[in-house]
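We examine the record.
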Amino acid sequence: MKELNSEIGRENKLQIPYVEQKLGKLLLDAGKLAPADAEKILRLQKSDNLRFGDAAVKLGLVTESDIRYALAQQFDYPYLSSGEGGFSPELTAAYSPFSPQVDQLRALRSQLMLRWFAFGHKSLSVVGAQRNDGVSSLAANLAVVFSQLGERTLLIDADLREPRQHAIFNLGSRQGLSDILIGRAELTAAIRIPSFVGLSVLTAGTIPPNPAELLSRLGVVSLLNSYKEYFDVILVDTSPGTFSETATICLRTEGALIAARQDYTKVGDISALANNLNETGVSVVGTVLNQF
């Protein structure tokens, strides 16, 4: 037993410096530290028996935010520093993953995993009663937190009237959902977002003159079924519930998450939307109150 404990002790001594060295390398590679700074940190770390990150912060060479960023890279939890990637600032899950708002998003993710995706479902619509309920922002941030969990995630912009996902993810004008439905593009129109492992976005594409008729086609079902072979989670951003095609899209995904905006969305509108979706055969998984 004494010999076994000795081996465990030697193993731990080898592992801890490796972790510290990797954290230091990440900070060096990110330009947060200079080689001379690293030497100062190592000396303080040894003299005061501190962790590498704590010693660096104590010396004022890096911030707590810098340490969290490096640890996120070390543990494969991707997020971005401010302005990195050129995405919209409203993508909170990408730029402020440790904020209370994103904690709530992760809690919502857990509920959706337990109440919807755990039952074999792979797609879910995100819908609001009216414009400016925060549907696009919620769908985008949910897509990011699902990808951070390691789920192969696809975000589809099915709002063919006023799409926003191309702007949120800085994708510019490109072929998307509408183009696939009329046979002018392939499923490969869904673009992978390099900043996030496992996250892809299918933009709305060309704005059509007949979104209601286009989204009522059976091709939508075929498209979703094809993508289900490659993705674990498919989130669909929809037009407001006042448009006829919205219920159709929600029916295609079988389930819907309703987004409401605090001090903006009327309770009666939410209730009417939920009743309409239920009558159509859509399972309303829940309602989220956006506070912005």
